[in-house]
Q: What sequence folds into this?
């Protein structure tokens, strides 16, 4: 058998990256670190999209377009999310989300 | 590119991505974690190059490495004392989070490796010109919606992050 890279290999790498990002998003205390975990998960999803595009339907470009839109949404999410973190820091004096547990500041 | 070279590149790049991702979620100092994002995002750009999506690799470097990582670093430095490591970087659910992430990875990898994919080797890829063509013809509406979303996010971020509305 020829030693070459198959679709499964990319999917496994993406699954591992997603799990690592999910751990980061669940376990971190700092809100910025939680956002880092979310970014890792989005990257894993992007790897999946591009791998499926390349191995299954390379003639149709939906896979790449989807990744472009996801990167745009990730940029928007980072901008708004980090603005919220800044505001939370000003209000509560901390960016650790388990100490931000009241609705009324 | 011969299959052996491709396989070697794939192993090196995916090991870089996974090791630096682990460092991102495990580093006690959050500024170090943010810097570990750099090899991780560059590695994902390398995966895109391996898959033949060159335009996406360039966008990945520009947006993730150039913009998102920088934004994360800025906010980290604005919101905490960067010199000293805090008491505990993880919350009380960290043990459960490891179990949840492990189960997630095991189930996903199990399903992915058992399913018989109807895909052989990689097929020839489309060029950047075709991607641009598709983006401005077939997928013009999602493209415009994304630009409106970016505008809304920009205005929203400025309004939310403004220190005092009465100034």
A:
């Amino acid at each position: 058998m020829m030693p070459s890279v198959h679709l499964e290999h990319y999917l496994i790498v993406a699954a591992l990256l997603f799990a690592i990002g999910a751990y980061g998003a669940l376990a971190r205390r700092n809100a910025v670190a939680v956002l880092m975990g979310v970014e890792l998960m989005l990257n894993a999803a992007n790897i999946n999209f591009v791998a499926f595009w390349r191995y299954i339907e390379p003639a149709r470009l939906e896979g790449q377009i989807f990744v472009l839109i996801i990167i745009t949404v990730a940029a928007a999410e980072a901008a708004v999310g980090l603005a919220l973190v800044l505001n939370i820091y000003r209000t509560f004096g901390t960016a650790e989300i388990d100490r931000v547990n009241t609705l009324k500041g | 590119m011969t299959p052996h070279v491709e396989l070697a590149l794939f192993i090196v790049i995916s090991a870089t991505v996974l090791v630096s991702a682990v460092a991102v979620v495990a580093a006690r100092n959050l500024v170090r974690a943010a810097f570990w994002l750099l090899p991780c995002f560059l590695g994902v750009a390398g995966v895109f190059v391996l898959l033949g999506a060159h335009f996406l690799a360039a966008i990945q470097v520009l947006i993730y490495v150039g913009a998102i990582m920088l934004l994360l670093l800025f906010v980290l430095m604005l919101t905490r004392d960067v010199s000293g490591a805090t008491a505990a970087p993880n919350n009380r659910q960290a043990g459960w989070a490891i179990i949840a992430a492990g189960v997630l990875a095991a189930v996903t990898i199990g399903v992915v490796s058992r399913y018989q994919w109807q895909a052989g080797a990689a097929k020839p890829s489309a060029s950047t010109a075709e991607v641009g063509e598709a983006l401005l013809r077939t997928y013009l509406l999602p493209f415009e919606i994304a630009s409106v979303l970016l505008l809304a996010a920009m205005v929203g971020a400025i309004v939310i992050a403004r220190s005092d509305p009465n100034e």
The CA atoms of residues 52 and 58 of chain A lie 8 Å apart. Residues 7-93 of chain A form a domain with the Helix Hairpins fold (CATH 1.10.287.3510). The longest helix of chain A spans residues 62-92.
